[in-house]
Write a structure and sequence with these properties.
The protein has 295 residues and is an alpha/beta fold. It is built from eleven helices and eleven strands. The protein has three domains: 82 residues, Arc Repressor Mutant, subunit A, CATH 1.10.10; 111 residues, Periplasmic binding protein-like II (D-Maltodextrin-Binding Protein, domain 2, 3-Layer(aba) Sandwich), CATH 3.40.190.10; 91 residues, D-Maltodextrin-Binding Protein, domain 2 (3-Layer(aba) Sandwich), CATH 3.40.190. The longest helix is centred in the first third of the chain and has 27 residues. It starts with a helix and ends in a 6-residue tail after the last helix.
Length: 295
């Protein structure tokens, strides 16, 4: 008996994801393709691999065993492909960068344009997401991450330190300065129950008017006057309709890193992009660490 590798990968994806939709998304195929491959494997094996339930597919022991074997094969495939990519000394072909959306929007777009102009034969793909993509599984070649501890399984270079600050519309900031004991409205991330301690020292009475799971939405709400917010200084530079809360000094925030798998250390394409990123952040460090003079 010999299983098709696509069928093995599909069983692995379904064990990981638990649903046809999740497996299809992981494999970049349709859910009907996932169902068809699972059925083909079950027919070849002569028994069911999954228990179909309303909430998804529950793997039986045979499916778990096949998935474990497929995971080992997948890891070996990724390893050899990373090693081959790492040996590539050409400045042509595919290169995948992942970075946070707001960082691309506010700073990296001009850098990316200049890079593509300088290396037209490099086929750059930019995956703009706040999700942590798996470099071991080759979901990206390079990753720009904002993190205090980017992990010890990857090779990293600290691009720059940064700080954040508390901002509000001019009327809201002026009202807070005029009466620090008055209730100050805030917008915060969903995981937080209160404003930053640095702000509470000066404005102890607060009201959380709304919580958001996205920084762009928080900024839009703050600009509309919903409340004060905390955000990285690099974002505030492009928002003249928001001003710092008086008396609240900027605070240290997680630094920005560029990361890659160690197998890609010798890749020429990855190296020239990392060099471009280092030069850019070195030249623009103050934009991430200091308040603009007009603020």
């Amino acid at each position: 008996m010999q299983f098709n590798w696509d069928d093995m990968r599909t069983i692995l994806a379904l064990v990981r994801g638990g649903t046809l939709a999740a497996a299809a998304d992981d494999l970049s195929v349709t859910y009907t393709t996932v169902a068809r491959r699972v059925q083909r494997a079950e027919e070849q094996l002569g028994r069911a691999l999954f228990e179909r339930r309303p909430e998804g597919y529950l793997p039986m022991q045979e499916a778990c065993d096949l998935a474990a074997a497929a995971a080992r094969m997948e890891a070996e495939e990724h390893q050899i492909m990373r090693q081959l990519t790492g040996r590539d000394q050409s400045l042509s072909g595919p290169l995948v960068l992942t970075a946070p959306q707001l960082l691309i929007q506010s700073h990296l777009a001009p850098l990316i344009t200049g890079f593509c102009d300088q290396y037209p034969d490099i086929e750059l793909t930019v995956r703009a997401t706040n999700e942590i993509l798996d470099l071991t599984r080759r979901e990206a070649d390079l990753a720009i991450r904002i993190s205090a501890s980017p992990g010890d399984t990857l090779v990293g270079h600290r691009l720059c330190d940064q700080r954040n600050g508390c901002f509000a519309t001019p009327p809201l900031a002026a009202a807070a300065a005029a009466d620090p004991q008055a209730v100050l409205n805030w917008v915060v991330y969903t995981a937080y129950d209160s404003p930053p301690q640095s702000a509470q020292k000066h404005y102890p009475n607060f009201h959380i008017r709304a919580r958001f799971d996205d920084m762009s939405s928080m900024v839009a709400a703050a600009r509309a006057g919903l409340g004060a917010l905390r955000m990285p200084l690099f974002l505030a530079r492009d928002l003249p309709d928001l001003v710092p809360l008086p008396q609240v000094a900027p605070q240290d925030y997680a630094p920005i890193w560029v990361l890659s798998h160690r197998d890609l250390l010798q890749s020429k394409k990855a190296q020239v992009l990392k060099d471009a990123l280092r030069r850019y952040f070195r030249a623009h460090q103050s934009e991430f660490f200091d308040l603009p003079a007009q603020m």
